[in-house]
Design brief:
- Helix 2 packs across helix 3 and helix 4 (136-145) packs across helix 5.
- By secondary structure, the chain is α/β, with parallel strands linked by helices.
- The chain has 7 helices and 6 strands; from the N terminus they run E-E-H-H-H-E-H-E-H-E-H-E-H.
- Helices cover 32% and strands 15% of the residues.
- It has a 6-stranded mixed sheet.
- The radius of gyration is 27 Å and the shape is elongated.
- GO terms for molecular function: rRNA binding; structural constituent of ribosome.
- Residues 45-87 are annotated as: Disordered.
- It comes from Lacihabitans soyangensis.
């Protein structure tokens, strides 16, 4: 399949890019997309949550009431979870949320999202360009030229376009990522995917079976 290449003014350049059916034309698999997104979000968790248990609470260990004869329940100390300020029962402990996910599943997930965006006509190829200096206004003009103002966009660039990153970082619902850093979560968490012309061949090379 062929997609026309646009310039930063939103006009056709007369060029087109042939997209590989192996990457941009597969049957989307929603389950593997869910697995890869779950894996990505799990890796973002620090896992440093911790609550104090009975042995860790700083309170008196004095026995509050005698063992028998009070007519009430037995209580060993104020550290008991039944008292306000006592220890927490089965509270959170530090842990690693990472889990194993096969590389083929990650590859299929990314191909599924890219193929779905192509089928929805929500993938745009843009001619490679950079900015002379970081200017948010210039990037907004670029989005307006493509009629993408207010839409959630992800721009995958070739790398080294630091001024593009700086120009887009303060704009809501807009993100610029390097071709080597793109992941399934970023791809699925956007309405429109913009690909720099030079990134297409790179993505195809790393995602082909």
């Amino acid at each position: 399949m062929k997609i026309k290449v646009l310039n930063k003014e939103g006009k056709e350049t007369g060029k087109s890019v042939e997209l590989s059916e192996e990457v941009f034309g597969v049957e989307p698999n929603q389950h593997v997309v869910w697995l890869d997104v779950k894996h990505y979000l799990a890796n973002q968790r620090q896992g440093t949550h911790k609550s104090k248990e009975r042995a860790e609470v700083s309170r008196s260990t004095k026995k509050l009431v005698r063992q028998k004869g009070s007519g009430g329940a037995r209580h060993g100390s104020a550290k008991s979870p039944t008292y306000v300020g006592g220890g927490t029962v089965f509270g959170p402990r530090p842990r690693d949320y990472d889990f194993k996910l096969n590389k083929k599943i990650k590859v299929l997930a990314r191909k599924s999202v890219l193929s779905a965006r192509v089928a929805e006509n929500n993938l745009i190829i843009v001619e490679d360009f950079n900015m002379e200096s970081p200017k948010t206004k210039a990037y907004i003009q670029f989005l307006n030229a493509l009629s993408l103002a207010g839409k959630k966009t992800l721009f995958v660039v070739n790398g080294g376009e630091n001024n593009l990153y700086l120009s887009a970082r303060n704009i809501p619902k807009t993100k610029v990522v390097d071709k080597d850093s793109v992941n399934t979560y970023d791809l699925i968490n956007t309405e429109i995917i913009l690909l720099a012309e030079s990134t297409v061949s790179h993505l195809e090379s790393i995602l082909k079976d």
